[in-house]
């Protein structure tokens, strides 16, 4: 797993979590993330191939650095062309990112007032382009946990049970794409596969149409909502995508809401 943290250091974690290296991200160039150079070398997104790339404080990265991830997120490869040769590096990674809701950190806080001036929250969010947000399937807003909830002795669902449910869903997907070499998860579906495996009824179609119009969603966001809904249905062992699955998938795109940043 590759983590890039907001204290201006990047930590490279091996599977054993023993080795690490530190890199100042304030001077991170496009080439460091995507790869390249005079003698082309793989970048961080290729080093995270078949793993997770975690970017903490996403808006603090230079916009030009973030934009180079757009095509690799779509194609899962990085192509580097030079006058005498071209190189392709694999880049099938899971992007996980975190950010504060605003510069002061209190926008939408249930108890503390946001101190940011009008327009600052939207300007902060605009550091991340719409096309990049389109390529992120889940936008989850995490609210502060109250003390009563922290001290609550009530037991929650065990991680082992959740893990088994996820493994079962992955097996469903593996069987689904058994006839498609190189495909093993819903996230890899192309447009033809989406039409085949993500069919919805009239009620679901109306719900999705309403969400598309109200949130001004793109065609890419439309496809990703269907993929997420298909995965939610798989986790519930449901053969069909129900309205509840679509509603949950739409709800998981909080940054698309018009009123999120005022």
Outline of the structure:
The protein is of the alpha/beta class. It has helices spanning 30-34, 44-47, 63-67, 70-75, 120-125, 130-134, 147-150, 159-176, 191-197, 202-215, 219-235, 243-251, and strands spanning 2-4, 10-12, 35-36, 41-42, 52-55, 77-81, 86-90, 94-97.
What does this structure look like?
It is built from twelve helices and eight strands. With 262 residues, it is an alpha/beta fold. It folds into two domains: 2-145, Rossmann fold, CATH 3.40.50; 159-256, no CATH class. A four-stranded mixed sheet has the order 2-1-5-8. A two-stranded antiparallel sheet has the order 3-4. A two-stranded antiparallel sheet has the order 6-7. Strand 3 and strand 4 (41-42) form a beta hairpin. Helix 10 runs parallel beside helix 12 (243-251) and helix 11 packs across helix 12 (243-251). The two termini are 35 Å apart. Residues 1-25 have low confidence and may be disordered.
User: What overall geometry do the principal axes of the alpha carbons give?
Assistant: globular
How many helices? 12
How many independent structural domains? 2
Output the CATH topology of the largest domain: Rossmann fold
Largest sheet, in brief, is: 4 strands, mixed
SSE class = alpha/beta
């Amino acid at each position: 797993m590759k983590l890039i943290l907001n204290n201006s250091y990047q930590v490279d974690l091996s599977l054993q979590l023993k080795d690490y290296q530190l890199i100042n991200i304030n001077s991170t160039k496009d080439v460091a993330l995507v790869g390249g150079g005079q003698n082309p070398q793989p970048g961080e997104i290729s080093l995270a191939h078949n793993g997770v790339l975690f970017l903490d404080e996403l808006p603090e990265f230079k916009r030009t650095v973030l934009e180079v991830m757009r095509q690799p997120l779509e194609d899962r490869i990085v192509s580097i062309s030079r006058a005498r040769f071209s190189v392709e590096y694999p880049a099938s990674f899971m992007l996980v990112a975190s950010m504060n809701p605003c510069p002061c950190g209190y926008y939408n806080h249930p108890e503390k007032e946001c101190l940011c001036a009008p327009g600052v929250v939207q300007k902060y969010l605009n550091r991340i382009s719409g096309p990049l947000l389109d390529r992120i399937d889940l936008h989850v807003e995490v609210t502060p946990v109250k003390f009563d909830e922290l001290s609550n002795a009530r037991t929650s669902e065990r991680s082992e049970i959740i893990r088994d449910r996820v493994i079962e869903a992955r097996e469903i997907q593996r069987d689904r794409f058994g006839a498609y070499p190189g495909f093993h998860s819903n996230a890899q579906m192309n447009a033809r596969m989406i039409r085949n495996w993500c069919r919805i009824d009239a009620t679901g179609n109306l719900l999705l149409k309403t969400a598309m119009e109200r949130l001004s969603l793109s065609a890419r966001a439309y496809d990703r909502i269907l993929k997420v809904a298909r995965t939610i249905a798989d986790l519930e062992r449901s053969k069909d995508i129900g309205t509840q699955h679509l509603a949950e998938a739409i709800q998981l795109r909080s940054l698309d809401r018009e009123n999120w940043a005022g």
